[in-house]
Amino acid sequence: GAVVSQHPSRVICKSGTSVKIECRSLDFQATTMFWYRQFPKQSLMLMATSNEGSKATYEQGVEKDKFLINHASLTLSTLTVTSAHPEDSSFYICSASTGGIGYTFGSGTRLTVV
Amino acid sequence: DQQVKQNSPSLSVQEGRISILNCDYTNSMFDYFLWYKKYPAEGPTFLISISSIKDKNEDGRFTVFLNKSAKHLSLHIVPSQPGDSAVYFCLTGGTSYGKLTFGQGTILTVHP
């Protein structure tokens, strides 16, 4: 079946640095990628939707300059957390849709900013 | 309106026995279902998933069953181990829109 590989699974970074999270569709072309974040004791919340070759659409309240999303190819989408702060520490997960064969999710990234 | 419900907030099982966690959903557009496990102070970790074209998916001790007509999802853990003690979330999504919907979670405790 369709697989999305998300890396890294865990990352610790210093405050003020940037962190890049990658999601790759391994055996299909992902026309649309979704990025989610889980806040403590809350459900996963959609951050943004990206379509290959175009700008991402951010949900209300999500800072697009802080959470940079790039979907430059049909198999790769990246989320870069810029100038990370401790409050950005969270669980981030991507999901990919082809619009045709279905829908699959990455295994998530645990980001800790110290 | 709670579209995904895990009606049992907690479940206690003896080591070696079967654990069955349940999840009900209301939106017939949902066609992708996942289970995640979460330990305290950690992020959820992916366990197992199933798409609507299947009614069963098995991975080691974990089996997910999907009953589309009843809009019901269940996770079976056999045999249960103390290390399985965690919060289990079911998540659903649909190919038509991408947004995941989360259940409230069930706390599983496996006693030695």
How does this model look, in words?
The complex is a heterodimer of chains A (114) and B (112). With 114 residues, chain A is mainly beta. Helices cover 0% and strands 54% of the residues of chain A. In chain A, strands 2, 4, 5, 6, 9, 10 and 11 form a seven-stranded mixed beta sheet that branches. Chain A has a four-stranded antiparallel beta sheet with strand order 1-3-8-7, with no helix packed on it. In chain A, strand 9 (90-97) and strand 10 form a beta hairpin. Chain A is globular, with a radius of gyration of 13 Å. The relative contact order of chain A is 0.34. With 112 residues, chain B is mainly beta. In chain B, strands 2, 4, 5, 9, 10 and 11 form a six-stranded mixed beta sheet that branches. A five-stranded antiparallel beta sheet of chain B has the order 1-3-8-7-6, with no helix packed on it. The interface between A and B is medium-sized, with 21 and 19 residues.
User: What is the CA–CA distance across the termini of chain B?
Assistant: 38 Å
The low-pLDDT segments of chain B are: none
Residue share in β-strands of chain A: over 45%
Number of helices of chain A: 0
Taken from the alpha-carbon principal axes, the silhouette of chain B is globular
User: Sheet with the most strands of chain A?
Assistant: 7 strands, mixed
Written as H for each helix and E for each strand, in order along the chain, the element string of chain B is EEEEEEEEEEE
Number of helices of chain B: 0
The average pLDDT value of chain B, as a whole number, equals 87
Mean pLDDT of chain A: 86
* Largest interface in this structure: A-B, 21 and 19 residues
Derived structural class of chain A: mainly beta
Q: How far apart lie the N and C ends of chain A? A: 37 Å
How would you characterize the largest beta sheet of chain B?
6 strands, mixed
Q: Kindly state the percentage of residues in helix of chain A.
A: under 10%
- Return Rg of chain A in Å: 13 Å
* Extended strand count of chain A: 11
Q: How much of the residues of chain B is beta strand, in percent?
A: over 45%
Kindly provide the radius of gyration of chain B, computed on alpha-carbon positions and rounded to a whole number of angstroms. 13 Å
